[in-house]
Amino acid sequence: MAAMKPLFKVVVVFGTVTSVLTVILTLLYNRTGIYPVHYKVSNRPFTFSEDANRPPGTSLRSDFNTLLRRYSERPGLREFQPEDAPDKYSNSLLAIEVRNNRHEKTTVDPKLNNAVEALLAQPIINDHNFEYIHNPRNACSNSPTDVLVTVPSAPGNWEKRMKVRNSSRGDYVRDQGNRARLLFFVGKGNSSEQDRIDEEVARFGDIVQETFDDVYKNIRLKAVSMLKWTSAFCQGADFVIRADDDVKINLMGLVAVLKRTALRHEHFILGRVKVEDDPARDPNSKYFLSRAEYPRRKLPRYALGGLLGYPVRTVTLLYQAALRTKPVWLDDVFITGICAPKVGVELLSDPSFDFTHKEW
Ligand SMILES: *[C@@H]1O[C@H](CO)[C@@H](O)[C@H](O)[C@H]1NC(C)=O
Ligand SMILES: *[C@@H]1O[C@H](CO)[C@@H](O)[C@H](O)[C@H]1NC(C)=O
Fold first, then answer.
1. Residue nearest to atom 1 of ligand 2 (CA)
2. Which of 96, 105, 116, 225 is the most buried (most CB within 10 A)?
């Protein structure tokens, strides 16, 4: 009997220590926020969606905690509903996009495929059948290409093109490790401009030129020519960055944002998104849009054409939509505001896609 006493003591001490430890650990566990039950990422309940692009080997829990950590540093965080805990949605990935400090869910809509199919079944109403005056058709296929930088340019802008080639954009493209290409897109200019372009092509080989007249009113044709060329000759790349010849960009940063975004979205356009813009109704305005061409009071939500980024698969979709959609001449309104929503392409804002036009 005397032998039981020390054993009893050991059991009591062990029991007490484990209970206290459990309490402390539970408190710590909850305080650190590792367990997400204490957070809410949205005012509204949100759901989780399948995401085939989730990198292999990442667990739902780690994805969720990464997202949570990121969002918990932002204002507007409320309490998370326990029933939204991710455990019961194994094999899914939370997809949220932060826009203007509002946390919005993004779901992959199964109806989307039907919408795309329905659109593609529609007849082509704006065929884009211009001849190429210059076509560096192997620019992407000559060597491995991940990123294509497309620059809309006017025939007479040879100085700007020189500056672009000589900018950090040019440096980035010349660095073989970046697997990037830079191409300018121009329409037809007058004969003296054409001579210069022919010289430029001989020297740099980086100009795509079609036969439509290069006048401002034809910017839609130029934008479509860029989508078309990419669909036809650069399918192997991952991303396209479209940047005007007078916009300064940090290519490395933009590519990083595109890669990150592509983990959570299939089809998207990154840019500077404009909401509730008024159409210019003054006939003297550079951007004049007649009521006959566009009767609505407000422009659709769209992204400014000066700087945009998208996956190549999205470019293909946008090109097909552009062929089948009643146009407005303003290319960015047409492609990002009217064509994109028809084929379920999301418009996303990111501060790294803010830009200003500049004098070089
Ligand atoms: C061609 O266009 C340029 C502007 O880029 C202009 O300066 C020039 O006078 C034009 N030449 C002809 C022959 O029209
Ligand atoms: C290119 O940049 C270098 C300096 O970085 C400068 O010396 C040169 O004149 C530039 N060339 C053109 C065509 O702008």
1. 166
2. 225
Q: Are 319 and 312 in contact (CB under 8 A)?
A: no
- Residue 39 confidence (pLDDT) above 90: no
Ligand 2 midpoint to CA 166 (Å): 6
The 3 state secondary structure assigned to 20-65 is HHHHHHHHHHHHHCCCHHHCECCCCCCCCECCCCCCCCCCHHHHHH
Residues 288-343 pLDDT 10s = 999 999 999 999 999 999 999 999 999 989 999 999 999 999 999 999 999 999 99
Distances (CA, A) of 23 to 13, 15, 26, 30: 15, 12, 5, 11
Residue nearest (by alpha carbon) to ligand 1 atom 12 = 190
Which atom of ligand 1 is nearest to 190's Cα? Answer: 1
- Buried/exposed code over 227-263 (b: 16+ C-beta within 10 A; e: otherwise): bbbbbebbeebbbbbbbbbbbbbebeebbebbeebbe
